Please model this.
Amino acid sequence: MSARFRLSVVVLLALFSAIYLPDLGHGFVKDDYGWIAASRVRSLPELAHLYTTNVGFYRPLVSTTFAVDEAIWGVNPVGYALTNMALFLADAVLLFLLARRLTLPPAAALFGVAVWAFNFHGVNMAVLWISGRTALLLCLFGLASTLAFLSNRHSTAALLAFAAMLCKEEAVVLPALFVTLDLSHAAQHKDSKSGRGVLRALPLWAALGLYGLLRALSGAFGPLDAPDYYRFTLEPRAVLRNVAEYLDRGGTWPAVTAAIIALGVRVRRALNDDERRVIRFGVLWFVAFYAITVFLPIRSSLYALAPSIGSALAAASLAARAWREDPQRFGRVAAALVAVVVLLLPVYRSRNHGLVEPSDLAAQSLRTIRDAARSRGQRGAIVIVDHAEEPVTLNDAFGNLFTDAVHLFVGPQWSGVVVQATSTRTSGDDDALVFELRHGGLIQVEP
Model:
């Protein structure tokens, strides 16, 4: 790699760090407490137990990462946040390797990585919210599986796809995606032996079958018994809204950056065969990784992280055409895009606030509670009073997992309950410690 390429990598890393490093590890939020509480292990048999039980979802490999973090860091959120950052960087490296495996030049491959990394949707939630590592692990093993499959290492691809399934449900599309890619490639080359593609995917289908069996045995919820917000819907208005929103979250930023490159370089050349192939690959990836979430009534930007790999690759393919047209002009336009991201730093940072402020409130609340509980011995009851009119509420910080947070930070013999200011304050214990949310912080009050 040239010195200019290495400098570009350093600049992009510095810019990404400026956006996210100041906001890493402020505290835990909502689902984080449940993951840590359910993933605590003290022996190898307990670790194996993670693969035969569930926390509603069946994501035992995610639980394993929480178990490792808890063993190393305890309940220090900084360590968990560093794990998320390391996973994201690993994803970025794998995306670069995939773009190169698809024959894109280094400059275009790096452009695709940057498009994915600086998307306004999905990345901040995946990096800053500890529970967002589900999507990071999906991308990690999904990309690794794809690289193995494209290198004709089908058993390795199946093993990695299985690992992806143990992290997030969207990975079940990988066998069908790989078969479609094989059939598409055979059709383009008029290969009469296209049936071999189906045979090559047999290890992947076996991995899918094993995943389905383990999931059923674990008791994890499925499409029929999931909570209402995780049950599939075919209601046209909901599906069409999902399609529109996910196209925006996963596709707008890549489309804008690709258009700027094309206009700035004044591209006149047609796409070559390799570039067309990458675009087809990107479109198939994009559609495949939205194939499940587009039918869920709940919407989340986290669902855009994996699909936007496909749109980033398509943008990288268009960038490759521009680079072929005029490498010097391409470099200048790409540098201008980096300058635009620099100017947008306040926007990126402001979008982090919705994740950072609840974690700050949770951390402050737990410090206050723990300090007060020290004088009460090893057990007791804690009541915290929420105010819905506050800009950031205790529900934003803890959701329905305040009891898990109390067990982790105060002690397993303590109970915790959240009540609204308009409801009767009771814990069943007249000697309970009572706290109230006032002016953005939790303070102790008289019961």
